[in-house]
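thought: fold this chain, then report.
action: predict
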Amino acid sequence: MKTREVTFLLVSLVLAAVVGGLIGDIIGSFLPEGAVKTLFKESISIGFRPLTLELYAISFTIGLMVKINFVSILFLILVVIYFRWWFL
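observation:
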């Protein structure tokens, strides 16, 4: 694979996760209470909490947290299917 294709895949996967999470939260906010709302609204957080090192004049913060919900997983699967269909 070329570097350009790998970059396109990674950017597409990140955008799919972000847009899928946003759409899942929006759809979940309009649904009535129940199992379907829980499916759309619940998310799993993967990563580590921000770590802050505060010196007198400088403050460093390092952290990465990824929240994945049902719709973001669906979007990720669709991007992978599209990538396999288009580039292979």
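thought: worth noting. Residues 34 and 57 are 50 Å apart (CA to CA).
final: tokens above.
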